[in-house]
Amino acid sequence: MDRKADFPMNHDRGNLKIDRSNKTLRELTLETLREAILDSRFRPGERLVERTLCDLTGVSRTVVREVLRHLESEGLVETLPHHGPIVARPNPAQAAQIYEIRELLETGAASACAANATKEDIARLSAAVDAIEAAFAGGAPHGVLRATSEFYEKMFRIANQTVAWGVVQSINVRINHLRALTISTPGRATASIAEMRRLVEAIGKNDRAAAFDASRDHIRTVSNLARQTLDSQKAPSS
What we know:
Mean pLDDT: 90
Structural class: mainly alpha
Number of strands: 2
Order of helices and strands: HHHEEHHHHHHH
Helix content: 55-70%
Distance between the termini: 38 Å
Radius of gyration: 19 Å
Strand order of the largest sheet: 1-2
Number of helices: 10
Oligomer: single chain
Shape: elongated
């Protein structure tokens, strides 16, 4: 088992200071805090204190409040009465729905991709899996999330399913919130890459049924893994 590629929970906030050079301050702060949550630098259920976030990021309380509202709309933050904003704990029922949506859309895209893919397309998909593997090996969870999203974007576009990809993008933050849980589990790096390569191999053979099955099996595997992880994180009843 490749233990080096597994991701332990990382609670070191590190340097969250904002680079003000390109995007707007709000966009930069949003990206920084979103990445910090997905990288588990803030734990599920942890309070997000505005003053602390201002100190960590170096931006104003107004910007922090706007960003927290946006993160709440994405499902990464929730506001509790008398407590304020906290890092959202993924809801098992909602997670199950997200995986159902993924299975519906991704299996169809995988099948269509197998019908449409050229040799050049297969090379691009293989390179995308290589990028995911490199991110795992480098211990870069955010890199894994980014490279995985890029793989699926390529697959959907090769399949000519841009509308379906738009739907996926609309919930991609929620998908990545769950993906961040599953990629950090022991042994997941090796298993995930094997599953992705099986999918690319089926697409490369223009085998629609095999691509459908590979996609379905991958999603059901991570769905079960996410459910187990969420069950293990449930707070004990008081």
